[in-house]
Amino acid sequence: MRWIFFLLVLANLLLLAFFWQQQPATAAVPVTTLNVPSAEQRLQLVNEARTRLAQRQQPVAPVVSKPRLCQVAGPFMDQQRLNDARARAVAVGLQTRVKRISAPSAEPTEYWVHVPPQANRQQARKVLRELQSRRIDSYIITQGELADGVSLGLFRNQSSAENLQNQVRALGIDVRIQVVSDTQDELWLELNEADIAEDLLQRISDGMGDVRWKKLACSAG
């Protein structure tokens, strides 16, 4: 009976060895190497990322549109001539607008005699006292581009202004004359187009005196 027992044990060992050999080998786990960037490399990456972000966020320059141009004729010396030219333009299907422009008068109206601005108000007072001691009517200019200068008056006649200028210069004081002109309203006719045939423009302004044509920015509205 003992040999039967040992025979069974041996059979079990053989079966165990057989099944052990039949099990698949455990797959090897691949090893991945992780490269960790250095502090200098990380700083470079951050800087590159900031540069790309700044480039994306750069503001786009606004597109500035050019003003629309219109043909403008003038100046007209009187309202009647302007009305006649406007009627001719309307007759050929053009839209018109009347423009009033303030312009300096062609003739000077007054001559302002003055001492140019001094270094300070104290120096201006010194010049004023010198002039008044010579019985020359004058006062300190307190505002504008000629502040701290001294005004000697406005004259309608140019020769009177020049006589006073020579009198003050004889005292060793720098004195100047500024021409003062009034403004006057000029009448201009604006056509609501820029590209108009030259012969058509001449027909509209024919017989209107020294009226000239030019292209200007169209009026608003």
Automatic annotation (TrEMBL):
<dbReference type="InterPro" id="IPR007730">
    <property type="entry name" value="SPOR-like_dom"/>
</dbReference>
<feature type="domain" description="SPOR">
    <location>
        <begin position="105"/>
        <end position="181"/>
    </location>
</feature>
<dbReference type="InterPro" id="IPR036680">
    <property type="entry name" value="SPOR-like_sf"/>
</dbReference>
<keyword id="KW-0732">Signal</keyword>
<feature type="signal peptide">
    <location>
        <begin position="1"/>
        <end position="27"/>
    </location>
</feature>
<dbReference type="GO" id="GO:0042834">
    <property type="term" value="F:peptidoglycan binding"/>
</dbReference>
<protein>
    <recommendedName>
        <fullName>SPOR domain-containing protein</fullName>
    </recommendedName>
</protein>
